[in-house]
Write a structure and sequence with these properties.
The complex is a heterodimer of chains A (111) and B (120). Helix content of chain A is 0%, strand content 54%. With 111 residues, chain A is mostly beta strands. In chain A, the strands form two sheets. In chain A, strands 2, 4, 5, 9, 10 and 11 form a six-stranded mixed β-sheet that branches. In chain A, strands 1-3-8-7-6 form a five-stranded antiparallel β-sheet, with no helix packed on it. Chain A is globular, with a radius of gyration of 13 Å. Chain B is elongated, with a radius of gyration of 14 Å. In chain B, 0% of the residues lie in helices and 47% in strands. Chain B has 120 residues and is an all-beta fold. In chain B, a hairpin with a 6-residue loop joins strand 4 and strand 5. Classes of the chains: A mainly beta (111), B mainly beta (120). Chain A binds chain B through residues 4, 6, 30-31, 33, 35, 40-45, 48, 50-51, 88, 90, 92, 95-104, and chain B through 4, 6, 31, 33, 35, 40-45, 48, 55-56, 91, 93, 95, 97, 103-114, 116.
Chain lengths: 111, 120
């Protein structure tokens, strides 16, 4: 079945630093999504990507849909303490819309 | 705020009991999804509805699990004869299918806060 490999598994950075995380898939996706999840809450959608090569920004967040359609990355610039949380990539293909999620990247920011 | 809501937020039950969770999607969203998330993992797809029709079920959804969306609005997920392995966060998401959209007609999925189930 489809699987997403997300890396790194965790990051501990200083406030103000930039962060990069990525996801790779064993198969092609039509849509890539990035979510952030706080403890005890549901995932919150950050960025959605629909076309191979697409580069999209949302404030300090930038994400790209890989040309091969098998990978995506998320960058966070100038990190702040409220960026702390777990970031998930997700993708889907076909016409069901069911999402396949990565294992998550836990981000901790030191003030 | 008219986001996705779920009830209850937490449920503690004894093994063997039945539990039922409710999800209210964003109004006018015609697609509704259920996912399960265990500690340290990403959510895993369980089932989804298009309006009131249940169109796909994961093999994770054993015979003890049943989901309904009777009027195409809210949905319920019932687990019968709960087992300790059922302990997880159960997440609901909804999206608006736009058949006219060239890119991603299934729409972006927005999640609710989840129901945390603990089976003792």
């Amino acid at each position: 079945g489809q699987q997403l490999n997300q890396s790194p598994q965790s990051m501990f950075i200083q406030e103000g630093e930039d962060v990069s995380m990525n996801c790779t898939s064993s198969s092609i996706f039509n849509t890539w999504l990035w979510y952030k999840q706080d403890p005890g809450e549901g995932p919150v959608l950050l960025i959605a990507l629909y076309k191979a090569g697409e580069l999209t920004s949302n404030g300090r967040l930038t994400a790209q849909f890989g040309i091969t359609r098998k990978d995506s990355f998320l960058n966070i610039s100038a990190s702040i303490p409220s960026d702390v949380g777990i970031y998930f990539c997700a993708g889907h293909s076909g016409n069901t819309g069911k999402l396949i999620f990565g294992q998550g990247t836990t981000l901790q920011v030191k003030p | 705020d008219t986001g996705v809501s779920q009830d209850p937020r937490h449920k503690i039950t004894k093994r063997g009991q039945n539990v039922t969770f409710r999800c209210d999607p964003i109004s006018e969203h015609n697609r509704l999804y259920w996912y399960r998330q265990t500690l340290g993992q990403g959510p895993e797809f369980l089932t989804y509805f298009q309006n009131e029709a249940q169109l796909e079920k994961s093999r994770l959804l054993s015979d003890r699990f049943s989901a309904e969306r009777p009027k195409g609005s809210f949905s319920t997920l019932e687990i019968q004869r709960t087992e300790q392995g059922d302990s997880a966060m159960y997440l609901c998401a909804s999206s608006l299918e736009r058949t006219w959209a060239v890119l991603d007609p299934m729409g972006e999925q927005f999640f609710g806060p989840g129901t945390r189930l603990t089976v003792l």
